[in-house]
Amino acid sequence: MEKPAxxxxxxxxxxxxxxxxxxxVLAYAFDLSLFTKWWFGVSLLAFVVIMASMATSKAKKVxxxxxxxxxxxxxxxxxxxxxxxxxxxxxxxxxxxxxxxxAETLTELTIETTRDMMEGFGAPEAQIxxxxxxxxxxxxxxxxxxxxxxxxxxxxxxxxxxIVALIFKEKEPTNV
Length: 176
Known about the structure:
single chain; mainly alpha; transmembrane
């Protein structure tokens, strides 16, 4: 990836990270239950993909050579990686240092939401109790679990990034 494209992706990654922190702070301040809503998670995913796609588009515009698949994917993924890493560090600090009780509250809210969802799908009571027991025993906001979640997020974003890179890559000119 060319230096100007890398600079754009890095800038967008920082903007993305700061934006995600702002969103988390607002959700934390106004209503912790937002973190348990499916649409909130989907909205965050869409926001990340849009920001990374914008970075890829800008990187393509400043590219002085053929903008290959590798360049498009690199611009997209660098943005996602930096933005979500910044957000991850903030989440670790917020839920493990600043307010560990918020993590406990969120776990309780997540358990309630999971119970309602599983009952709505008609899951057997024994299966519901087993799933909820596992959730109570495991701290979702521990450093290890947040790092695992980050890893899975990166995989998901990378898969989406493959599609974004296919859209933004330039084809080799052919003489036919």
